[in-house]
UniProtKB/TrEMBL annotation:
Positions of region (Disordered): 60-83
UniProt xrefs under Pfam families: DUF1840
Record-given protein name: DUF1840 domain-containing protein
Top-level taxon in the UniProt lineage: Bacteria
């Protein structure tokens, strides 16, 4: 399943099911088939996403480091392959900010 986010202020943004659900849950929205983030809700949604990004980054900095060189290289390679919440959320946060600036709601559907 895909989530397709739309706003009059931006182009459409399509997210895969897992990423779309996660962002909706972070914002306190039910990951339903359709929904809306009103202009009035956008500042709180942005703040919630930014807080979740900061929390993930703090957790990543605090993750224990491997002592063994081979394990360390393996861990570094896995970390390099990992797509962070910041990377996934940036286009969506941009959509929210642009929508707020133009007084436009953000809606989603599948």
């Amino acid at each position: 399943m895909l989530y397709k986010f739309k706003s009059r202020a931006t182009g459409d943004l399509i997210l895969l099911n897992e990423q779309g659900r996660r962002l909706l849950q972070i914002m306190g929205k039910e990951p339903t088939v359709q929904g809306i983030v009103t202009v009035a809700q956008i500042p709180a949604a942005i703040a919630a996403i930014e807080a979740a990004v900061a929390q993930e980054e703090q957790a990543m900095r605090g993750a224990p480091r491997a002592v063994d060189r081979d394990a360390s290289q393996e861990q570094d390679g896995a970390a390099a392959d990992r797509i962070t919440l910041r990377q996934r959320a940036t286009p969506f946060v941009d959509m929210l900010k642009r929508s707020a600036a133009e007084n436009a709601d953000v809606v989603w559907g599948t």
